[in-house]
Amino acid sequence: MLSSAASATTSSASSHPYRPASARASRLRPVLAMAGSDDPRAAPARSVAVIGAGLSGLAAAYRLRRSGVSVTVFEAADRAGGKIRTNSEAGFLWDEGANTMTEGELEASRLIDDLGLQEMQQYPNSQHKRYIVKDGAPTLIPSDPISLMKSSVLSTKSKIALFLEPFLYKKTNTRTSGKVSEEHLSESVGSFFERHFGREVVDYLIDPFVAGTSAGDPESLSICHAFPALWNLERKYGSIIVGAILSKLTVKGDSVKTGSSSSGKKRNRRVSFSFRGGMQSLINALHNEVGDDNVKLGTEVLSLACTFDGVPETGGWSISVDSKDASSKDLARKQTFDAVIMTAPLSNVQTMKLTKGGAPFILDFLPKVDYLPLSLMVTAFKKEDVKKPLEGFGVLIPYKEQQKHGLKTLGTLFSSMMFPDRAPDDQYLYTTFVGGSHNRDLAGAPTSILKQLVTSDLKKLLDVEGQPTFVKHIYWRNAFPLYGHDYQSVLDAIGKMEKNLPGFFYAGKPLHTLFISKQIYQLWFGNNKDGLAVGTVIASGSKAADLAISYLQSHTKHDNSH
Q1: DSSP one-letter string for 107-149
Q2: Which of 9, 66, 124, 365 ranks highest by number of CB atoms within 10 Å?
Q3: What InterPro entries does this protein map onto (predicted)?
């Protein structure tokens, strides 16, 4: 019933004045042609600055490079990839950001094909086995409606509520009128799902899902922003279940008409996978294709100047940077570009000095964004010390179960169960998460305290004995942006920047700090497409590049006509 859910954080390319046509390939050729033309009357090769070398930034840069556009990527950190990062030590290999991805977005499939990464794809064992804690013990999450009815995850009362939902919420529901009251616009995720399915569904299905994708809780998020697809399904069909079924049938019909992937191979786009060597392999491949010389690490953007005055001209953007790299000190001088793709968090954008036409472009309309911290604990135990090992993806712990049974963690991925080659043969590797809105203070606790908490929870859930043989603690101070009922103000602010700054494109929208959440998210609905998925981030960067290309092409035509 949640298979068609999509986050509001996906790129709003359709609202941008330079939205490219659907025939993307034909739109890319003129840019490539103008970049390599020997005609003295042709416009000079265009250049784009990409700010941020995370996944969306690298994806945008890769697409621009493939289209013949000169690209420079500026990254303040000393490495590319943002919160996608893989590490290894003592025979263990673990991801510190996104753990897996899907090919739910066509751009993700194309990118993997183009990079030649098909042979490196690694699929987790028993990935459809995902657990949730109920009555203090891991319980297998049902994978289909029939299994759900047989499962002990929900009570008989909640199962009846699920069964009756299509009949209680019919298409004649007043919310289908298209005119939605302010009350409905601000309805919380918890209230929305409780109306449709009852409180138990919120406590045991929605709460841990929300904690995994936003580190928040169902009452703090607006349904129309957190789950816009489901919110629109209710407006259109009344029943979420009926709407999800009909939407799935529509998508399936469209896929039959259009055929399979661009490579001609039939592939399941909803299956989770990683890469040999971890998710860092994707970052490394992108970085290599974009080129070391085009990715300026340790280089902070200090100011951006939009010099357009009326009709845009070549080199309408001037950027000044500060580089920590001694070999790149010349970058401190201002450089000019024809367009800018921004992928940095809004909190970072607020520290940059922007001007337009020589006058300050005040960013006081950018909303203040609060961030939630998260600690990631990687632990290993001897196999003989884990008395109740579970095959599968991992286990999530609803907040209600945390309260009842004294559990302190959000959930745990069974890392070596998914990928046996990521730990020595005699050990199990686990990745556990601590933090979120309910346990915000715990996220910043010392490693020694977190080690005790994680070991205690794993003892209760997997009957682990003794102490871990291996421990790594990764702390993300700004792991999750806390976008609540005022989320629309974030999108409005981004839209205002794009509208008032010619040649400025924001990729990823507020996805930049949510990569970690994909790990916890994939304990659930991991086979379904969602706005927080790695594939969606790839698509967002690619679409931002398409917008920039369309913009460059339109102004190249203008230049040539004069």
Answers
A1: HHHHHHHHHT-GGGEEPPTTTT-EEEEETTEEEEPPSSHHHHH
A2: 9
A3: Amino_oxidase (IPR002937), FAD/NAD-bd_sf (IPR036188), Protoporphyrinogen_oxidase (IPR004572), Zeta_carotene_desat/Oxidored (IPR050464)
Which strand ranges, in their side-by-side order, compose the sheet holding 47-51? 295-296, 70-74, 47-51, 339-342, 504-506
HEC string for 224-247: HHHCHHHHHHHHHHCCHHHHHHHH
Task: Please tell me the distance from the alpha carbon of residue 366 to that of residue 481, in angstroms, as a whole number.
Answer: 14
Q: What are the pLDDT digits (tens) for 277-300?
A: 999 999 999 999 999 999 999 999
* Predicted pLDDT at 439: 87
> Which amino acid, residue 320?
S
Residue with tokens 């080129």: 291
Average pLDDT, the chain: 81
Over 70: is that where the pLDDT of 105 sits?
A: yes
Is 174 a residue whose pLDDT tops 50? Answer: no
pLDDT at 417: 96
Which neighbouring-strand residues pair with 71?
A: 48
Tokens 């993806």 sit at which residue? 393
Q: What is the mean pLDDT of residues 457-475?
A: 97
Distance between CA atoms of residues 479 and 83, nearest Å: 9
CA distance 61 to 339: 12
Q: What is the DSSP string of 367-415?
A: PP--EEEEEEEEEEEEGGGBSS---SSEEE--HHHHHHHT---SEEE-H
Whole-structure pTM value: 0.83
Distances from the Cα of 295 to the Cα of 17, 51, 74, angstroms: 28, 10, 6
The DSSP bridge pattern shows strands 335-337 and 47-51 to be: unpaired
Q: Which of 135-149, 201-215, 335-349, 507-521 has the highest mean pLDDT?
A: 335-349
- Rounded to 10 degrees, the C-alpha dihedral 204/209/211/215 comes to -170
SS3 assignment, position 159: helix
C-alpha span between 429 and 412 (Å, rounded): 10
Q: Quick one: pLDDT at residue 175?
A: 47
